[in-house]
Design a protein that fits this description.
The chain is α/β, with parallel strands linked by helices. Helices cover about 40% and strands about 10% of the residues. A four-stranded mixed sheet has the order 1-2-3-4, covered by helices on one side. The longest helix is centred in the C-terminal third of the chain and has 24 residues.
């Protein structure tokens, strides 16, 4: 599969038809393999800076058409299945939860959760500082309906 640059995606999404009100999710379970290889993705605090960059680019390019932003889709599922059970990328776990090649199911879900929450806070801070206007805008993350975790929202 050919690797596409960010301009390809910008051109694709710039073609939204009039009358469609988009709801955009910045992260939906996966993360670029490059960030996993470089510093462990959600296991490193460095991911906050890169997620902030992604959010900043999306807000700048699509902000005139997007009024509803979600930072993460079901972060509880992504962290649990990616860093405890190992059934979602990056597939990290340890016994008794699974038998992955790498991972520590007792510690990594907490580290990843912390960095996801902090990345969410980074995106919110960037939005409020650089892009928020007087019109009400809400951002949230979507949790699985089976989840007992609260949904985190921010608004004006």
């Amino acid at each position: 599969m050919r690797i596409l640059n960010s301009n390809t995606y910008v051109c694709f999404y710039a073609g939204w038809s009039a009358g469609i009100e988009p709801f955009v999710t910045l992260a939906h379970y996966d993360i670029p393999q490059e960030l996993v290889d470089r510093y462990g993705a959600w296991l490193s605090a460095e991911v906050r800076r890169d997620f902030g960059y992604l959010a900043d680019v999306c807000f700048a390019v699509f902000g005139d058409r997007v009024k509803h932003w979600a930072t993460f889709n079901e972060p509880n599922v992504a962290v649990t299945k990616g860093y405890m059970l190992g059934t979602y990328p990056p597939g990290r776990c340890s016994p008794p939860y699974g038998s992955c090649a790498q991972g520590n199911s007792d510690a990594e879900p907490y580290v990843a959760t912390h960095n996801v929450v902090m990345a969410h806070a980074t995106a919110v801070e960037i939005y409020k500082r650089k892009y928020q206007v007087r019109t009400p805008t809400r951002s949230c993350w979507f949790f699985s309906r089976r989840s007992l975790h609260p949904v985190l929202f921010w608004a004006n």
